[in-house]
């Protein structure tokens, strides 16, 4: 059982930064890969970034070089540092956790994740 709670969203100007946090309950946080997805109104929920149990990171092309995912297993927390934000980054951002070894194809498939938070709104104004 894993409960995920996102925080850190808000309204910022283009070019600004935000730091999203995902606080996880449970005592086996280190056994899960962690991912961030986002969903704009009436659009598909899309992959943003992920980090494996061993610290390997993955990013969508749209955020590569601007976003950084990290984790602190001692604090049961996953972080998404977002820099140089653009209006197209506006979405609800969801934290997700995945059991098991990462597939050979990576961690970008939302249906592969087992637990989801309720999301936090990120709005980037021009």
Describe what you observe in this structure.
The chain has 126 residues and is mainly β. It contains no helices and eleven strands.
Mean pLDDT: 95
Rounded to the nearest angstrom, the radius of gyration is 13 Å
Coarse morphology: globular
Derived from helix and strand composition plus strand pairing, the structural class reads mainly beta
Percent of residues in helices: under 10%
Order of helices and strands: EEEEEEEEEEE
- Strand runs, count: 11
| Low-confidence runs | none
Strand-residue proportion: over 45%
Give the CA-CA distance, first to last residue.
40 Å
**Which oligomeric state applies?**
single chain
Individual helix count: 0
Biggest beta sheet attributes: 7 strands, mixed
Q: What are its keywords?
A:
126 residues; globular; seven-stranded mixed beta sheet; 11 strands; four-stranded antiparallel beta sheet; mainly beta
List the helices and strands and how they pair.
Elements: E1 4-7, E2 10-13, E3 18-24, E4 32-39, E5 46-51, E6 57-59, E7 67-72, E8 77-82, E9 91-99, E10 115-116, E11 120-125
Parallel strand pairs: 2-11
Antiparallel strand pairs: 1-3, 3-8, 4-5, 4-9, 5-6, 7-8, 9-10, 9-11
In short:
The protein is mainly beta and 126 residues long. The protein contains no helices and eleven strands.
